[in-house]
Backbone:
C-alpha cells in the first residue's frame, strides 16, 4: 500500500512539473494532458515503485490523481490498479492513459547536434537550435498533437534538411553544455596581417560577418596597405571611414510577366565614395546579386576610378533578376520598374550607371528611357555601348582591348611579347570576345572560351574565321557546342573550366572567385606565368596565395580595366559626342591610359619598398596608389 499512501499525499496536486534535464536524465517527449482532448481532465502524477532498480529507470507509474474533496466529506475509495509490464495502470484505460517517458541519450546529442531539450508549458520538448521552435512548429501531425519522440525527430529532421535551416545553421551553432550563444563562422579565408591591419579587418568581420565577397575584397586591399598604415598612422582612421559605404539602397522591384503573373525581385545600389567626384559604376542583373556583391563591386569600382586621371567616385548595383529566358517585353517592364525606384538617386552630379553582367545596350536603353520620363529632362548621364546618347562607338571594345594592351605592357617588362603565346580565356561574354579579337590582332594563340556548362577547346587556336563563327553563335544565344558542327576537331568539355590547358597567359573573364585552390594549381602546372584579371576578383584568397608562391605575375582588375574606365569617363565629357575618332586614335587613347596606370602602380609599390621584380608589385601598387588618391581628398574635405 506504499503506492496508495504516496497517492494520498499528492491528492491536492493537479499536474506534474518537469524541469530541464541533463544528458541521461528522463524527459517527457509525449503529449501532455492539455495537448490531446482524449485525455481526461484529471492530472497525471508520476509514482516510482518502492523497490528501485537502476535498470528500470525508464519506467514510471502513471495513474490519475483524484480531485480535492471538501472537508467533512468521506474519502472516495482508491481506484483499483493492476500491474502490467512493470507499470501500474487503471483497468480499461491502458491506451488512453499511457505515457512514454524517454531518456535524452548521449548518442542523440552526437547525432542531432541541431537539437536541444527545454521545458515548454511544463513539458520538456525537443527544440531546433536555430529557430528555437519545437516539433509542431515545423510539421503538425494528423492527431493534432506533438506525437512521439520519433515523430518529433522526424519533423525536425525534415526542417533540418531545408535550405533555409542549412544556411542558418552554417552561420549559427549552439552549445548544449553551457548554453553559450551561437558562434558566427567567418565566411572567408583570413590571412595573417599586422596588428593594425588585422584590427581593421576584424571590425568589418564583426559588422558584416555574412558578406563574404565584400570582406574578401577588403582583405586584399588591407593586406596591400600595411606599409602605408605603418608609415602614416593617420591613414588608419581614413581607411576605416573609407571601408564604410556612403549610401546603400535596397528596394523592391515588382513586375508582371507576359502571362499576367506578378513577380518581385530585389534591387541594389551602393554609392561607395564620392570623395573624388560623382559616382560611376555598373548595374548587374544576375541571380547571384546580393548586397555583399554590390558592396564588393562598388568598392572595386571606387579604386578603379581612383587610379584614373579623371575625378570620379565609385558605385555599383543591380538586381537578382535573370534576363535569360525573358521576352523583350518582360525585360522592358522589369527595367522600368527598377528605374521607378532608382531614378531618385541618380543625376549628373550624383551617380552615373553603366553596363555590367546582364545589362547591355538593350537594358540600358530601357533604363534611360524610364529615367528620362520620370526626371522630365534629357540629361544623358548614362554610359553604355553604342547608345545614341553616349556618343561612343567604341565603348564595347574598350575594356577588352585594354586588357590585352595591359598584358602586352606586363610582358614587355619581362622581355617578352604576345606574339606566338598560347592564351586561355574563360567566359564568352562581350569582354571575353573582344579579348579574343585583340589577341588575334597581336598574333597570339587563344585556344579556349567557356560558358556556364563547360569550355570549348581548339588546340590549333582560333583565327578570324573561327572568331566570326563564335561571334554569330553568341549573338544568337546558342551553346558553344554549336561550334563543333563547323570545326569537328575542336572539343567541348562539359562541367569543367579551362585552367588545366597548356598556356602562357590566362585571361579569366567569367565571374568572381572562378579560380579556387585546385584551379590555381592547375594554372601553375599548365605553364602559365602571367594572369590578367579581366573580371572583378576572379581568384579566391587561397588561390592568390598559391599563385604568388609560384611567382605567377597577377595583374589586378582595378588596373587592367584602365582602358574601359578611360573611355567610359570620356563619354561623360559633353564635347565627346562631337569628336570623330578613328580606330587608331581610339586604340592610342586606350594604350596611353593603360601605360599610365601601369607606371603609377609600379611607382607606388616602389615608394613603399616593393620592387618591380616582386610578383605582387602590381597588386600592391594599384591598391596603394588608388587609396592615397582617395585619402588625400578625404583629408582635404574633413571628417565627412
Residues:
Amino acid at each position: 500500500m506504499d503506492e496508495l499512501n504516496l497517492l494520498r499525499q499528492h491528492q491536492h496536486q493537479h499536474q506534474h512539473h518537469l524541469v530541464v534535464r541533463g544528458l541521461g536524465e528522463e524527459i517527457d517527449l509525449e503529449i501532455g494532458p492539455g495537448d490531446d482532448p482524449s485525455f481526461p481532465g484529471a492530472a497525471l502524477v508520476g509514482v516510482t515503485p518502492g523497490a528501485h532498480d537502476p535498470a528500470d529507470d525508464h519506467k514510471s507509474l502513471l495513474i490519475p490523481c483524484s480531485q480535492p474533496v471538501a472537508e467533512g466529506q468521506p474519502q472516495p475509495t482508491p481506484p483499483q490498479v493492476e500491474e502490467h509490464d512493470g507499470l501500474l495502470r487503471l483497468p480499461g484505460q491502458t491506451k488512453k492513459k499511457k505515457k512514454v517517458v524517454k531518456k535524452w541519450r548521449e548518442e542523440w546529442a552526437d547525432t542531432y547536434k541541431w537539437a536541444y531539450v527545454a521545458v515548454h508549458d511544463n513539458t520538456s520538448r525537443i527544440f531546433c537550435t536555430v529557430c528555437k521552435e519545437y516539433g509542431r512548429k515545423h510539421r503538425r501531425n494528423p492527431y493534432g498533437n506533438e506525437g512521439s519522440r520519433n515523430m518529433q525527430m522526424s519533423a525536425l529532421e525534415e526542417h533540418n534538411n531545408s535550405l533555409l535551416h542549412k544556411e542558418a545553421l552554417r552561420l549559427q551553432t549552439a552549445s548544449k553544455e553551457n548554453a553559450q550563444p551561437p558562434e558566427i563562422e567567418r565566411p572567408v579565408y583570413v590571412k595573417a596581417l599586422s596588428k593594425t591591419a588585422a584590427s581593421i579587418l576584424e571590425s568589418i568581420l564583426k559588422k558584416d560577418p555574412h558578406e563574404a565577397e565584400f570582406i574578401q575584397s577588403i582583405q586584399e586591399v588591407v593586406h596591400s596597405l600595411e606599409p602605408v598604415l605603418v608609415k602614416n598612422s593617420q591613414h588608419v582612421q581614413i581607411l576605416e571611414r573609407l571601408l564604410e559605404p556612403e549610401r546603400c539602397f535596397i528596394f523592391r522591384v515588382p513586375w508582371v510577366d507576359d502571362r499576367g503573373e506578378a513577380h518581385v525581385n530585389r534591387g541594389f545600389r551602393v554609392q561607395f565614395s564620392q570623395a573624388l567626384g560623382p559616382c560611376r559604376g555598373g548595374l548587374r542583373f544576375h541571380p547571384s546579386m546580393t548586397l555583399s556583391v554590390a558592396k564588393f563591386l562598388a568598392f572595386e569600382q571606387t579604386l578603379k576610378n581612383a587610379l584614373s586621371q579623371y575625378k570620379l567616385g565609385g558605385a555599383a548595383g543591380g538586381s537578382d533578376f535573370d534576363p535569360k529566358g525573358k521576352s523583350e517585353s518582360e525585360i522592358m517592364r522589369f527595367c522600368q520598374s527598377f528605374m521607378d525606384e532608382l531614378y531618385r538617386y541618380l543625376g549628373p552630379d550624383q551617380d552615373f550607371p553603366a553596363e555590367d553582367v546582364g545589362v547591355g545596350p538593350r537594358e540600358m536603353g530601357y533604363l534611360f528611357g524610364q529615367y528620362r520620363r520620370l526626371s522630365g529632362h534629357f540629361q544623358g548621364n548614362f554610359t553604355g555601348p553604342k547608345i545614341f546618347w553616349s556618343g561612343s562607338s567604341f565603348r564595347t571594345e574598350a575594356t577588352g582591348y585594354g586588357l590585352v594592351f595591359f598584358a602586352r605592357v606586363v610582358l614587355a617588362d619581362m622581355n617578352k611579347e604576345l606574339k606566338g603565346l598560347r592564351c586561355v580565356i574563360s567566359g564568352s561574354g562581350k569582354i571575353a570576345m573582344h579579348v579574343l579579337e585583340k589577341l588575334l590582332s597581336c598574333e597570339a594563340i587563344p585556344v579556349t572560351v567557356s560558358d556556364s556548362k563547360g569550355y570549348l577547346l581548339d588546340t590549333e587556336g582560333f583565327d578570324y574565321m573561327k572568331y566570326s563563327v563564335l561571334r554569330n553563335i553568341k549573338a544568337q544565344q546558342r551553346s558553344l557546342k554549336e561550334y563543333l558542327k563547323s570545326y569537328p576537331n575542336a572539343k567541348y568539355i562539359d562541367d569543367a573550366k579551362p585552367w588545366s590547358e597548356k598556356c602562357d597567359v590566362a585571361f579569366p573573364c567569367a565571374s568572381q572567385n572562378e579560380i579556387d585552390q585546385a584551379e590555381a594549381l592547375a594554372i601553375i602546372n599548365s605553364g602559365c606565368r602571367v594572369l590578367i584579371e579581366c573580371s572583378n576578383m576572379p581568384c579566391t584568397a587561397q588561390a592568390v596565395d598559391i599563385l604568388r608562391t609560384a611567382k605567377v605575375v597577377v595583374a589586378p582588375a582595378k588596373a587592367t580595366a584602365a582602358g574601359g574606365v578611360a573611355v567610359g569617363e570620356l563619354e561623360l565629357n559633353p564635347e565627346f559626342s562631337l569628336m570623330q575618332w578613328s580606330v587608331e586614335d581610339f586604340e592610342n587613347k586606350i594604350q596611353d591610359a593603360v601605360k599610365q596606370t601601369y607606371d603609377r602602380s609600379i611607382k607606388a609599390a616602389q615608394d613603399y619598398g616593393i620592387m618591380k621584380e616582386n610578383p605582387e608589385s602590381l597588386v600592391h601598387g594599384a591598391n596603394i596608389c588608388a587609396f592615397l588618391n582617395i585619402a588625400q581628398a578625404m583629408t582635404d574635405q574633413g571628417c565627412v
